[in-house]
Amino acid sequence: MTLQRSRPRLMILDDPGAVDRRVAELIADLIREKPECVLGLATGGTPVGAYRELVGMHQQQSLDFSRLTTFNLDEYVGLSGDHPQSYRYFMQHHLFDHVNVQPSRTHVPNGRARDIDREAREYEKKIDSAGGIDLQLLGIGSNGHIAFNEPGSPIESRTRTVELTAETIEDNARFFETADEVPGTAITMGIGTILESKRIVLMATGDAKADAVRTAVEDDPDPINPASLLQLHSNVTFVLDRAAAGGLSTSGSR
Ligand code: PGA
Questions:
Q1: In the sheet where 74-76 sits, what is the strand order?
Q2: Is 195 part of any domain?
Q3: Ligand 1 center–CA 139 separation, angstroms
Q4: Which of 46, 85, 162, 191, when mutated, tests ligand 1's pocket best, judged by the most ligand atoms within 8 Å of its CB?
């Protein structure tokens, strides 16, 4: 990890479908180049289309997932993997069940671990033993969070439990029957964990993300806006649609 400030590379595309395809291509290129790569994966509404594209590439172009390893960013504390709103369930449903990844090589933190702090320490060790993450996919919260690292998360933070902010609970309530059902605690990779990935690809679509994207790219790196800390990594690409890029004062590459 280098702590020199550098500007994320910007790819600004016409619409969310183009963002999905570009992100899937970036991931597929890595899988073809390095079949035993380690992918860091994200959940939420944003990456669903990219996973759909990857499933299509597996089915139509035989993109081979059999040798790679995955680590997801986070999980709700208290939800088991078969709960429809758990991130393990999300990954099975949107990606893992439809490609030839080896189940034992897919990792999502266990939100029901009896000793959750130990689970967090073990998760870090597993990432390390796998050789570190080659490409980490990220979304961005409307409050600038990355994974469940809410504003104020320290740059050196590691996998740990965190309390979710009211804003995040409200953002995620759309996936639950009511906001009361959204767990208030999660286990998440830390900013320090994420910054150790060799490459980071952040995807964002829609104008609800425009402010968070602008702050992440243009403001000084500050833990109050966790995504701005990505400026302290030398290989970060933001893949955006026009709406999410709408607040930027500079234009990016296509
Ligand atoms: P979303 O969440 O993709 O559901 O908007 C992104 C995030 O919170 O990281």
A1: 74-76, 185-188, 160-163
A2: yes
A3: 5
A4: 46
First to last CA, the chain: 27
| pLDDT tens digits for range 88-117 | 999 999 999 999 999 999 999 999 999 999
Tell how far the Cα of 151 is from the centroid of ligand 1, in angstroms: 15
In a domain, 252, yes or no: no
Strand 9-13 and strand 236-241: pairing?
Answer: parallel
50, 52, 124, 146 from 238: Cα distances, Å = 14, 20, 25, 13
Ligand 1 touching residue 110 (CB < 6 A): no
Range of the domain at 76: 10-241
Query: What pLDDT band is residue 223 in, cutting at 50, 70 and 90?
Result: very high
Based on the structure, what is the number of domains in the chain? 1
Q: Which atom of ligand 1 is nearest to the CA of 175?
A: 4
Question: Which tens digit of pLDDT belongs to each residue from 19-36?
Answer: 999 999 999 999 999 999
- Residue 26: give its domain's CATH number: 3.40.50.1360
The question of whether 124 is a catalytic residue gets the answer no
